[in-house]
Amino acid sequence: MKLDVRPAADCPWADLEALFGARGACGGCWCQVWRRPRAEFESGKKDNSGAGNRAELQRLWQAKAPLGLLAYAADEPIAWVAVAPREHYDYFRRSRVLKPDPAETGVWSITCLFVAKAWRRQGVSSQVLRAAADWARAQGAQIVEGYPTQPHTAKAAPVFLWTGTAAAFEAAGFSAKPGREGQRPVYRG
């Protein structure tokens, strides 16, 4: 199946709202857990609706900031991938596990992947990840990386797979960054 994958800036906000639903994909996150300082994120997801996080994502969307891509099947939004310059994500400023190498410039990060339930386990993730890497490079990225989850079972709960799986990244042409054994994996493509 061939998907139509478009930059967020070229898509109606209502399409992301339709895909994410009232709770912003997961517990009021609205794809802000990596972007916002921890206290702002937690405050923004109060009551699980995530009104504050939703407002921040909508503000960035309207400003046409690099946010990510929406994937469509027959004009229906079915998947989202967040990809932007690494410095746009507050998470990396506070992380010890994924602390960036200051010598690396032009790094774009894939931080979130959300696929509508009816479309999961059909190869959508790998197509969207490939499109995200291609788009980031077209925007000037030197390096595109993601931080997948390594599920312990074949039927891991989707709520734990929001950064994508290693298998999906590999199917999209990414490979594990060497030297990270025993740490959270970093895949580059």
UniProtKB/TrEMBL annotation:
Coiled coil: none annotated. PROSITE patterns: GNAT (PS51186). Residues 3-189 form the N-acetyltransferase domain. The keyword Transferase applies. Gene3D superfamilies: 3.40.630.30. Keywords: Transferase. GO terms for molecular function: acyltransferase activity, transferring groups other than amino-acyl groups. The keyword Transferase applies. It holds the Pfam family Acetyltransf_1. It comes from the Bacteria. This is GNAT superfamily N-acetyltransferase. It comes from Inhella inkyongensis.
